[in-house]
Each structure stands twice: as C-alpha cells, then as structure tokens.
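Aim 2, interim progress. The first record below pairs a target sequence with its structure tokens.
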Amino acid sequence: MEVVKKTENYVIIKKRSGRYGVRSTAGKWINGAEKTNILVEAGLVKTAPVKDQEEPTAETKEAAAPQATTKASEEAPAEQ
C-alpha cells in the first residue's frame, strides 16, 4: 500500500488493486459518504452528481393506477 496523502485527521492510501482507502488517525477505516467526500476533495475520484428522487405526487399515482388495471385486463384471457 502506498500513502497518497496524509493530513491531521486521516491518511489516504492507494491499495494494490488501484482503489483508495481512507484511515483515520485513530486507525479506523472510514467508509461510505464520508470516504467519498474526502476522496473528491483530494481530487482523486470524480463522482456524478446525485439526482434528487422526487416522491410521486397524487396525480402521478392516479395516472399510473388505470394503466396497471388495463394491462392486467389485457393479459387475462376473456372467459365466455
């Protein structure tokens, strides 16, 4: 492992696999969003902006409901 950057709060390490690891000065590995933010700030990783996922509104839910029942009735064979 190769030390890439060392600060007073953490150490960024490049692993043999080419991936980065971030370790706190206390010796614990940092993971998740905090690790990603540290690597982005250091300029080692580029991330795509996270899209906000909006909850469907009442209108969207109502519009989706008839389509679902229509598909179900089309797929079911007509009994005579």
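The second target in this work package is listed in the same format:
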Amino acid sequence: MKDSIKKGSTGFFRSTWYKRFISDYGMVIVLAGLCLLFSLLTITEQHPTGVAAAEDLLKQIRELVPGGGPVLVVTSGSPDDSEFVRALKESPRLSRLQPLSFITGTPSDVRARMTVLDKAGQIPQYIITTHASSAMVDMITSQLAVFKDVAVLAPTSHKWPTFLMADNIRNVANQITVIAIIAIGMTMVIITAGIDLSVGSMIALSAVVVAWLVGRLGGEEASNVTMIIAALGGIILCGGVGAFSGLMVTAFRIPPFIATLAMMQVAAGLGYIISQGRPIYQLPDSFVWLGRGVDPLLHIPIAVILMLVLYALAHLVMSRTTYGRYIYAVGGNLEAARLAGIRVKLVLFSVYTICGMLAGLGGVVMASQLKSGAPTYGLTYELYVIAAVVVGGTSLMGGEGRILGTLIGAFIIAVIQNGMNLVNVESYTQKVVLGLVILAAVLVDRLKQRNFNFKALWHYKKKHHLNEHNLTGDEGGK
C-alpha cells in the first residue's frame, strides 16, 4: 500500500513539474525565443560608427604605420562622423602621426580642400574615413590623379544581428515604457475581473494638461518646480477620471466596459477642449529629461529606470501586502471576498484610481519624449496595454495574474513590433500578427481555465464515487 502511494505520488510530481515550470517561465521562454528568432533574421554586415569606428581605425594605424606618417581624415559631418572626429583628435596615437588636416563637409567641399593639398604637394600616406563617407572618398580620389595611390582606411565591418545592437535594445525598452507603466494599473484592474478602456485617452489628456500648465506658468523659461507641478496636475486629473470610473462601477454597478468606454470619450473630449484641437509646443528643453534622458552611470534611459522602479514596487504590493491579496480575492470570487470582510467596493474604486494615475504618468512621459502635448496622443494605446497584460498571463476572468508577467508581456509585444520593423514587414501585416498574438494569449487562458475546471470536476466525481463505494462496503459488512 505504502509502495503504491509512494509510486503514485512520485508519478504525480513527475507529471506536473514541467507544467509548473511552463506556467512560471513560459512567457520568459517565449520572449527568449522571439529574441533568438529576430536575432537570426537580422544578421547583417555591421559597420562601426562614432567612437567604436575611431578605436578600430587607430588599431589599424598602429599595425600599418608603426613609424608614423602623415594622415588625412575625411568625413561628411554627420553626428556619427563628428563623434568619430572628436575621438580621433583626443587620441595621443594620432597626434604622433602628425595628420595633415581634418576635412569635413559636402563632396564639393572635400574635393576643393583636397585639390588645395594636391597643389601644395601635401600628399598623405593614408586617408582615414568612416564607412558612410568611404564612397564619397573613393569617388573623389578616383578623380584626383595624385590621390589614386593613397590607401583609404575605413573601419572593419563584421556580421552581427541588428536586433541585438545596443541602440536598438535601448530603443525597444524606451518605446515600451509608456505602455508598460500603464499596464501596471491595467493588471490590477483586470485581476479584479474589470477593464479600463479610457487609458489611451487619458494619455492625451495628461500630455495636454501638462503642456498647457507649463505654457501658462512659464513657457519655455519654466523652472523644474513648475514642470513638476504641471506633471502632478496631469497625473491627479487622470486619477480623478479613473476614480469616477471606479465610482460608476461600484456605486451604480455599471459594467466596467461601459463605464470606461464613456470616460474614454470624456477624456478625449477634454483633451481637445483644453488644447483647442492643436498641439502645444511651448516647453523648455529640460522638459525632455524624463522621456529622453539617459543615466550617465548605467547608460539606461531615465524612463526605463522609472518603469523598472514602478514594477518593483507594484510587485511588492501585489505579492507581499494585504492590499494585494485583497485584489486577488475580489477578482477570484467577489461574493466570497465580501463575506470574508473585505471592503470590495473600496478595493475596486482604488484600482481604477491607480490605473488612471498611471495613465496620467504615461502621458507625462510621452509629452517629455515628444516635447509637446496633443489630443491625438495615445490613440489605440488601450489595446496595446490590454494586450501586454493578457500576453503576460493575466486572466480576463479575474483572480489570476502577475505584475512581472505583465512586464514580460509588454516586452513580447515590443519585440514583435520591433522585429517585424527590422525585417521590413509592412504595417498592415503587423496589425494582423499582433491581433493573432492577442487571440492566442486569450485562447491559452481559456484552455487553462477549462482544463482546471475539468480536473476539479473529475477529482470531485472520483472522490464522491469512492465514498459511495466505501459506504456500500461498510453496510454490507454489517
């Protein structure tokens, strides 16, 4: 008997550990798989730019010109080329080579300067340039006979996935910040078996209010304190919109879909009224710090750091506090939560308020990224936010979901969009793919719910059958 129990329990654990693993890490595996797929699809010839290009060329010079010699540096004047020239000028190695000069400009400017060098008899041993300017240099040297035999050095190219380039990864993280921040509040709402369709309009409302307040309180000369007050104004107003939605849901029992759909129209209308239907641009240059700034130590965008801090706090709230357990309880079984003494209406009211405030913060970040406020911001963002939450494993039926899963879901959506852009998938096809991804996530959730219900029913029937069998056997023995 003991052996059979031991064998059965061992079989149970053997048959369920992988299901537990997939449940806990399935979305991480999907995200890693997508990153691997787009990495393989975007392997191309990469050409160093800026400081990396300068370091590569200095290494080549060290090997080719050990004794020194005149070198001419030719660039087109693009931002990357400017960084390239700055790095070369700061290099002690290049100063020992005694370069003739640095030529920067259009092809006609470069040709004129090189003609002057030709007439003066100042012919370099090597011409250094970037990959972007190499075609221009080749064309000019082919036209000037004296430069035909001068070797042209350009940075060494190598194969690497465009998807894994540092700039692209930072771009993905920076683009998803607004959606990911709002998705925190949406996760709380959906765990309570609700939904908030007004978050997209609240992005626009917050961005417009912030830009309008900054313009009224100081315009392009506004101080940091003024910008903080304006940002708080947008966040508080959107929190009020969310609170009104929560009031309609709790006090008057209006379905969340209808209540938030109505507030979506209200928020959008308020945005147009405040801005008079036009973008507001009167913002100081320092306003972009939150949306475009990069931490000098971590080299991570400030908006991404804000997003990660908010997710860490939300994770602690949902997994380590009584309030978080109340949210799960309300979504799992509202009546049972009420009978257990939980103030259900207060919990529901609070999650809609929090969702509204986070939507307001998302609007502040977007206004900072775009350095303006417009009533057209946030269009269809509610769909992307809901998609991130659902793909992250939160059940639309309520009572189930994790904050960190939502973050992974947001990155899955961002990676799919970015990857399709890199492989040149047209925008219409991208919409089809995104819709199928959302549908697949909801389908998986429904299948999990159905499988759980089927197992629970089967175990109940089996237990009930065994009890009847034991009862019959006892009576027969008597």
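DSSP finds 18 helices and six strands in the chain. This observation will shape the mutagenesis plan for the next reporting period.
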